[in-house]
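Figure 3 (text version): C-alpha cells given as input.
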C-alpha cells in the first residue's frame, strides 16, 4: 500500500471513530450499534498500520492489490451491518404489529365496557 492510501485509510478510520463517539455522546446512536462501527474503524486502522496482515488477506482471497482487498472487506462489512439492521428492523416491525393488535383489543374492550 502506498503512502497516500495508508494516510487516507488512517485518516478515514480516525474520522469514523471520532464521528461514532460523538454520535454516542449526543445519544443519536446507541452503544450496541456503535460497537459494530467501532470494530470497522479499528479494523481499517489495523490494516492500514499492519500492511503484512492486509497482504496476507490479499493472498488468501486471490486479490491482486491490497487496496482492493480493503475495498472488498469494506463492502463485506457493510453487508454484515445491513444484515444486522435488517434483523433489528424485522424484530421492531413484529413488535409494532403485536402492540397494534394489543391496542386494538384494549380499545375494543374499553368501548365494550363503556357501553354497559
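Below: residues designed for each position.
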Amino acid at each position: 500500500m502506498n503512502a497516500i492510501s495508508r494516510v487516507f485509510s488512517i485518516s478515514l478510520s480516525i474520522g469514523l471513530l471520532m464521528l461514532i463517539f460523538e454520535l454516542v455522546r449526543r445519544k443519536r446512536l446507541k452503544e450496541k450499534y456503535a460497537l459494530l462501527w467501532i470494530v470497522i474503524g479499528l479494523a481499517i486502522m489495523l490494516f492500514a498500520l499492519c500492511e503484512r496482515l492486509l497482504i496476507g488477506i490479499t493472498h488468501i482471497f486471490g486479490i491482486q492489490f491490497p487496496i482492493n482487498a480493503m475495498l472488498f472487506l469494506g463492502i463485506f462489512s457493510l453487508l454484515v451491518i445491513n444484515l444486522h439492521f435488517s434483523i433489528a428492523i424485522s424484530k421492531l416491525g413484529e413488535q409494532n404489529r403485536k402492540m397494534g393488535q394489543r391496542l386494538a383489543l384494549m380499545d375494543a374492550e374499553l368501548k365494550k365496557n363503556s357501553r354497559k
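The chain has a mean pLDDT of 91.
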